[in-house]
Amino acid sequence: MNALKPQEYIDGILSGNRMLLSRAITLIESTRQEHQDLAQEIIEACLPQAGSSIRIGITGVPGVGKSTFIESFGNYIIEEQDRSLAVLAVDPSSSKTRGSILGDKTRMETLSNHPKAYIRPTPTSGSLGGVARSTRETITLCEAAGFNTILIETVGVGQSETAVHSMVDFFLLLMLAGAGDELQGIKRGIMEMADSIVINKADSGNMEAARRAVAQYKNALHLFPPTESGWQPRVTTSSALENKGISEVWDIVDEFIRHTKTKGYFDKKRRKQANYWLNESINQELHNAFYNNADLNASLTTYRHRVQAGEISSYKAAKDLMQLFLDTTD
Amino acid sequence: MNALKPQEYIDGILSGNRMLLSRAITLIESTRQEHQDLAQEIIEACLPQAGSSIRIGITGVPGVGKSTFIESFGNYIIEEQDRSLAVLAVDPSSSKTRGSILGDKTRMETLSNHPKAYIRPTPTSGSLGGVARSTRETITLCEAAGFNTILIETVGVGQSETAVHSMVDFFLLLMLAGAGDELQGIKRGIMEMADSIVINKADSGNMEAARRAVAQYKNALHLFPPTESGWQPRVTTSSALENKGISEVWDIVDEFIRHTKTKGYFDKKRRKQANYWLNESINQELHNAFYNNADLNASLTTYRHRVQAGEISSYKAAKDLMQLFLDTTD
Question: How far A27 CA lies from chain B's nearest CA (Å)?
């Protein structure tokens, strides 16, 4: 498929050509080395044109109505705010949650046919680290292609929320009224990450329960230590079905962006995130250099057995192995 | 203080000399290189004599009555089970929880004066990684000194439970009746680690609430996927104050040990734990080798700035830095 030259992809992306954007993202997700090399060249060229979007993470357990919410919210962002939108997903290979996320594009019928929206389904496989990296790189390309709003969807039941939280400006948690925290299966730490909690499916017949849930979550959020920027996470309701409360969610995002930009916290957070991903990338490189070192394989196995047999401490074994590693790189 | 030769420590520990055991543990906790070197020599010599104890982790938030429980439970283990006991704590530097843990030895008055018990207060500082390592090394020395039961206490509000869970055979969670999960501030993942939940302070006037709590936690535990060994976590009550339910907790531990030993899972878990700590130690060594590399400092700073400025991807920066790192180790 890659009969094209790097510059053709780059020019195509920068001019907003979706077909070339999609093909470049496919290169990012490929495991073939020549695809990876090509993808990296494209990414590095697009980086200077990236970074100017608002990045929003959206999480919630299956059944909370993420797809319907994103359909309503996305249409509002495009139609009423006159913005352009890319919708991505982080959902590392998990047979449990498969199908609950963007894979089924038809759930977002209006949005997926909108000329100002770009929806990219979940990569179908890969480790969290791999998916997180390809999502960050996809953000770069989408921004370079001119999309100024990025929604990143994830299922709020695993480790992927931390990864998504580390790549977005604003983190939104969708919850349901009337279901206990326990029943909703949301991990406790996730609530602490939320810049806003939206009680979804707050339809006409359900408003009383939704209002109670708002009060409860407001109370719960007050128990958490204040955020660095001083932002107090907002709790609100929405009914994607009845198209209610959607503009209010955008108002919260907008207020948050203005709040954090005024205080310089917006850029500070982006720099911290860049730093975080640099550290993660370095860890990954170190890990690969060590564990893919063929000269070390036999020693590693021997030491592993000795540690498991209680003959040597893990600390001493690691010291010895490190010395061997440094010797092999001479 | 270290006027002694390594062999003097080793002989002292193996003969059960507590004073030398304590001094060796102090070496483990020291940050001075010569103390560390000496400690490592002692640990490696003691390793072959270690490993034959039952290691029990005990967690619960401040106020749940951990110290009083350990006092009762410890005395029962010594007096009724004719075992010897070392009590350690993992509580990495946290001003929030300070004082709630073994620092205050007087809370365990009987136990701390018992000839068959050894209580080691929490190290007063250090990162979680450092404290976890020194605790594992302290376990080794205590086992080599002849203690056949090790209790490791931790406060169930942070990251330290995962570390403790990775160094014990049996993980016990203390809870209170009548306080919601939320109020008790226990992290969700911790309940999943528990081999047993003990509703503490189940005193005479409180039995009804305690029984309800038992039923609730039993239900909750059934929602978790089955453990690898097939062990179904037990829920029971205890009143350290009235010295009730203590022998039942030991019976659960005993049943668990027999269950897992019969199935070979006991040793399998220990091997997995050894493996885990080897991997952690290797990560730590790689991290140190990279970040303490003086030749790399300037480049790391430059790349960090470039990544934060969006001039280069974190992936490309990490690749370049890795090459520089490997070049400096030539």
Answer: 15
Q: CB of A124 within 8 Å of any CB in chain B?
A: no
Nearest to B114 by CA among B122, B123, B105: B105
Is the model's pLDDT at B184 over the cut of 60?
no
pLDDT top residue among B135 and B223 = B135
Partners of B60 in the β-ladder: B155
pLDDT digits (tens, 9 = 90+) for A15-50: 999 999 999 999 999 889 999 999 999 999 999 999
Percent helix, strand and coil across chain A, each to the nearest 5: 55, 10, 30
C-beta atoms of B40 and A315 within 8 A: yes
The fraction of chain B above a pLDDT of 90, given in percent, is 62
For the stretch A131-169, pLDDT in tens is 888 999 999 999 999 999 999 998 766 678 888 999 999
* CA B24 distance to own-chain centroid: 19
Beta-bridge partner residues of B237:
B199
Q: What's the pLDDT score for residue B181?
A: 53
pLDDT at residue A107, rounded to an integer: 64
CB contact under 8 A, B313 and A137: yes
Prediction pTM value? 0.78
pLDDT of res. B96: 39
Domains, in order of start, for chain A: 1-49 (1.20.5.170), 52-262 (3.40.50.300), 276-328 (1.10.287)
Is the pLDDT at B168 greater than 90, yes or no?
A: yes
Across the interface, of A48, A133, A307, the residue whose CB is closest to B315 is A133
The DSSP symbol for A188 reads: H
**Cα torsion through A161, A164, A166, A170, rounded to 10:** -100
CB contact under 8 Å between B307 and A44, yes or no, is no
pLDDT at residue A40, rounded to an integer: 94
| Residue from A281, A306, A321 whose CB has the most chain B CBs within 10 Å, to mutate | A281
Nearest CA in chain A to B42: A313
Q: Please indicate whether, in this complex, the C-beta atoms of B311 and A43 are within 8 angstroms of each other.
A: no
pLDDT < 50: residue spans in chain A: 94-101, 103-105, 182-183
- Reported ipTM: the value is 0.84
Q: DSSP string covering A39-84, please? A: HHHHHHHHGGG---SEEEEEEE-TTS-HHHHHHHHHHHHHHTS---
Q: What's the mean pLDDT in B56-81?
A: 92
Distance CA(A203)–CA(A244), nearest Å, equals: 8
Q: What is the pLDDT of residue A188?
A: 60
Residues 60-89 of B with CB under 8 A from A: none
Residues 254-313 of A with CB under 8 A from B: 270-271, 274-275, 277-278, 280-287, 289-290, 303-304, 307-308, 310-313
Binary contact (B47, A321; C-beta < 8 A): no
- Best mutation site among B282, B283, B307, B324 for testing chain A: the one with the most A CBs within 10 Å? B282
Select the residue of A44, A271, A286 nearest B313 (Cβ to Cβ).
Answer: A44
Q: Which residues of B178-192 are buried (b: 16+ CB within 10 A; e: fewer)?
A: ebebeebebbeebbb
Percent helix / strand / coil, chain B, rounded to 5: 55, 10, 30
